[in-house]
Automatic annotation (TrEMBL):
Domain named RNA polymerase sigma factor 70 region 4 type: residues: 129-178
N-terminal signal peptide: none
Single annotated GO MF: sigma factor activity
Name of the protein described by the UniProt record: RNA polymerase sigma-70 factor (ECF subfamily)
SUPFAM superfamilies: Sigma2 domain of RNA polymerase sigma factors, Sigma3 and sigma4 domains of RNA polymerase sigma factors
Organism encoding this protein: Lacibacter cauensis
One Pfam assignment: Sigma70_r2
Length: 201
């Protein structure tokens, strides 16, 4: 039986061939896992382009590290671990982008799938931490934040209500979100929340 007659989706065999530098088997592995990794990362980033970029980066890392590829015990779990780390890097980058900050807030405030007792407890504790962080904002930032995220007012409506400029409202919201994110990260809650939010891939 020649090489290409071997089962196409036998990961162990494909990885052994990839270690030898066989691009055909690398393409088979890429084709097998690309879509599910993309779906997972799209949930995280809310961006098709960025999700695709990270998928390619994950597989590029795999190709460049192929000398040790056969040492991976659970290949699918390995791929998700690398993708998860890339996703965390994405959230860390949010501090440099207002658009990413908004995506972050939407991710951490949307109710995740909490279908077991452990996850319900984690989410309950994380929700409590978010409220703690909000309560530590300055009175004006807290008011701006609540009007935006709890009463769903626009920037212009908040500015008119509080007699502020739209730029000031925007700055308050960005600073508030960054504070909440840092508070969650300091209390080791962000990774836990992400773990249950993206559990159902």
């Amino acid at each position: 039986m020649n090489d290409y007659a071997k089962p196409l989706y036998d990961d162990g065999y494909c990885l052994a061939k990839i270690k030898e530098g066989d691009e055909h088997f690398f393409n088979l592995i890429f084709g097998k896992y690309r879509n599910q990794l993309f779906a997972y990362l799209y949930k995280v980033t809310k961006s098709k382009d960025l999700a695709e970029e990270i998928v390619l980066d994950v597989f590029l890392k795999l190709w460049h590290g192929r000398d040790a590829i056969t040492e991976i015990q659970n290949f699918e779990a390995f791929l998700y671990k690398v993708a998860h780390n890339k996703a965390i890097d994405f959230f860390r980058s949010a501090k440099r982008s207002q658009a990413l900050q908004q995506a972050l807030w939407e991710a951490i405030t949307e109710t995740p799938a909490v279908d077991n007792a452990d996850n319900r407890l984690i989410f309950k504790n994380t929700d409590a931490l978010i409220k703690e962080a909000i309560n530590q904002l300055s009175p004006q930032r807290k008011k701006v934040f609540e009007l935006r995220h709890y009463e769903d007012l626009s920037y212009a409506e908040i500015a008119a209500t509080l007699n502020l400029s739209s730029n000031t409202v925007r700055n308050h919201l960005a600073a508030s979100l960054q504070f909440i994110r840092d508070y969650l990260e300091k209390n080791n809650a962000l990774v836990l929340l992400l773990a249950i939010y993206f559990q159902k891939k």
